[in-house]
Design brief:
By secondary structure, this protein is mainly α. It has 6 helices and no strands.
Length: 121
Amino acid sequence: MGDCHPFLTALAGHRRDSSTKTSPREIPAAAIMSNPGGLPISTDQLKARYIGTGHADMSKHEWATNQHRDTLASHVGHFDQLSYFAVAQNESIGRVRAQMLEKMLQPCGPPPKKKDENLLG
């Protein structure tokens, strides 16, 4: 185990040498979460960059809608998946693409009615 990478042994909580032991809690979060350039990324930056990551006030319907739209966009964007679905449904690729694009408008149906907080009762 002595020839493992020091970072991996620190994550696993194994002793790198006989005098020190690094627990996983001692490793800063910035060392684990970073962008390709090596700079750390906070969760606020991730949420600002990617809409689908959500926020604290996001409803279940909004979250599910984002998930379905991301999935449908992936299917439409990857020709092999699109052609697989077309063969499975015995439809043309253009028709399957049009159906998926149309379904992206409201993939989980209409949003639920919100309760008005100003009304009593």
